[in-house]
């Protein structure tokens, strides 16, 4: 048995995680196994979300969507490595906020959490908007607001019942999505083999003479949202049965499986339609391609599968946002009475309802306005997760062997560089809106801490540091 750094004085053993976070009366319930975590992450990423961005990114990258996915997957793997490092030292809810707070600085951690909170809060809203758009296309006589209310209502009820039921539902929903997507790929391949649209298998979607690095980076910056599921999984560290083992495993499984899936689907789509301007609607390219490869009947099945993605996504997005707010409330970064409480079954009810209320703004906001605010916070969070690993190395780790330098400095530094590069590839609207949100958080923090003079929330410190001493 080892002990933590002197600033915390908390003992750590085999059951160290549960005890280390039990400094508050209310704790989350541990009920998630590896398979639950993987399916939650995949559901959060929504396998069928690959179809949302295809037309837009195909136009942006001049027909190289699979290459853009490959670039962003490599970038995410560096950050996933850092997440897997940090979750072993800080196996508590909060994700990037917790890591920056514990490893770097409590005030800075708050700002990282504030920016990340924008992403988490808005994703359920975007999901509700997409529900209205897709179902409105099939049932135009039903008002948009009906689909928004149904989507938010179902997701809220499942989250109030408990995280394990929501996770079990995701196993079913992700499976349905995967079946529909596999059928889509098979039908597309059949069309390519039959020479439909003059298509033939080629490496052009990955490499060709007209590849432009700037456009690929811009496409990758958009597609980074597709990989946010592994970040969501890290917020469930306090509800995993074996977080130190299972969350790192889940992180890499999710990124690799999703990356392979995204590249496969977009490859066959890009081969069949190398020039998306042939399509009537670039933004709605995927339903149009579904009808092309399988007729109206398959198009209906495709849209139905997409709605499974909407429901699965909404459940996990609301779940993760509520738990991020809980972590910030528990530590006093946000008002504890409002955000840092759970009920007798371990559910942060107030936070779940707050996220649902934000999601209902889908009734008044269009998709472009909502989506433009997401990427800013994602790359900020990823950057600081990588930086947190470097700070853990210099603050806490005594061993200085080549392998430790590689794992705690070199690899995270590359992750920082890649995420900053992609961050600067964002459009000006995203940068402006994200900057305003960051400024609001900075003002709030300044007022709350009386000009940064008030003491920061207590820090727990890394739990498993002895292996590097």
Automatic annotation (TrEMBL):
The way this protein sits in the membrane is described as: Multi-pass membrane protein
Is Ion transport one of the keywords?
Answer: no
Location in the cell reads:
Membrane
Q: Which UniProt keywords apply?
A: Membrane, Transmembrane, Transmembrane helix
Highest taxon above the source species? Bacteria
- Give a GO biological-process term: transmembrane transport
Checking InterPro entries in the record gives: AA-permease/SLC12A_dom (IPR004841), APC_superfamily (IPR050367)
Acyltransferase: is it a keyword of this entry? no
**Transmembrane ranges?**
37-58, 64-83, 104-130, 142-163, 170-193, 213-230, 251-273, 293-317, 338-364, 376-397, 404-423, 429-447
Cellular-component GO terms for this entry: membrane
UniProt domain Amino acid permease/ SLC12A: residue ranges: 36-393
Record-linked PANTHER family:
AMINO ACID TRANSPORTER-RELATED, PUTRESCINE IMPORTER PUUP
Supply the name of the protein: APC family permease
Q: Which organism is it from?
A: Leucobacter triazinivorans
């Amino acid at each position: 048995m080892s002990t933590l750094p002197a600033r915390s004085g908390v003992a750590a053993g085999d059951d160290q995680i549960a005890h280390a976070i039990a400094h508050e009366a209310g704790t989350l319930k541990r009920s998630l196994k590896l398979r639950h975590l993987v399916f939650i992450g995949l559901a959060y990423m929504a396998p069928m979300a690959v179809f949302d961005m295809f037309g837009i990114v195909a136009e942006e990258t001049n027909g190289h969507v699979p290459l853009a996915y490959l670039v962003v997957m490599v970038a995410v793997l560096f950050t996933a490595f850092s997440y897997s490092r940090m979750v072993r030292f800080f196996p508590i809810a909060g994700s990037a906020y917790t890591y920056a707070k514990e490893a770097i600085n409590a005030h800075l951690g708050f700002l990282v959490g504030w920016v990340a909170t924008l992403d988490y809060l808005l994703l359920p809203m975007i999901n509700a908007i997409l529900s209205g758009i897709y179902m409105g296309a099939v049932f135009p006589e039903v008002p948009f607001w009906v689909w928004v209310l149904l989507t938010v209502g179902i997701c809220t009820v499942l989250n109030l019942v408990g995280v394990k039921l929501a996770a079990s539902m995701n196993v079913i929903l992700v499976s349905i999505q995967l079946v529909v997507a596999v059928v889509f790929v098979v039908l597309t391949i059949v069309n390519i083999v039959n020479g439909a649209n003059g298509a033939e298998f080629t490496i052009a979607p990955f490499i060709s003479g007209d590849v432009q690095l700037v456009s690929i980076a811009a496409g990758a910056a958009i597609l980074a949202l597709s990989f946010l599921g592994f970040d969501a999984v890290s917020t469930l560290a306090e509800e995993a049965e074996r977080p130190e083992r299972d969350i790192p495993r889940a992180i890499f499984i999710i990124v690799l499986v999703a990356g392979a899936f995204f590249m496969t689907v977009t490859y066959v789509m890009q081969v069949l339609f190398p020039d998306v301007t042939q399509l009537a609607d670039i933004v709605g390219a995927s339903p149009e391609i579904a009808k092309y490869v399988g007729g109206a009947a398959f198009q209906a099945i495709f849209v139905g599968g997409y709605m499974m993605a909407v429901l699965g996504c909404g459940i996990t997005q609301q779940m993760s946002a509520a738990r991020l707010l809980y972590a910030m409330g528990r530590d006093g970064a946000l008002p504890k009475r409002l955000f840092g409480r759970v009920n007798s079954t371990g559910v942060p009810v107030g936070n779940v309802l707050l996220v649902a209320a934000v999601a209902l703004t889908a009734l008044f906001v269009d998709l472009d306005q909502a989506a433009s605010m997401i990427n800013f916070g994602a790359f900020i969070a990823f950057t600081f997760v990588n930086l947190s690993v470097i700070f853990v190395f210099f603050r806490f780790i005594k061993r200085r062997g080549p392998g430790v330098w590689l794992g705690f400095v070199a690899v995270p530094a590359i992750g920082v560089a890649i995420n900053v590069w992609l961050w600067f590839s964002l459009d000006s609207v995203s940068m402006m809106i994200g900057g305003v949100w960051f400024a609001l958080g900075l003002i709030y923090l300044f007022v709350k801490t009386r000009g940064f003079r008030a003491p920061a929330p207590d820090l727990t410190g890394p739990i498993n540091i002895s292996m590097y001493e």
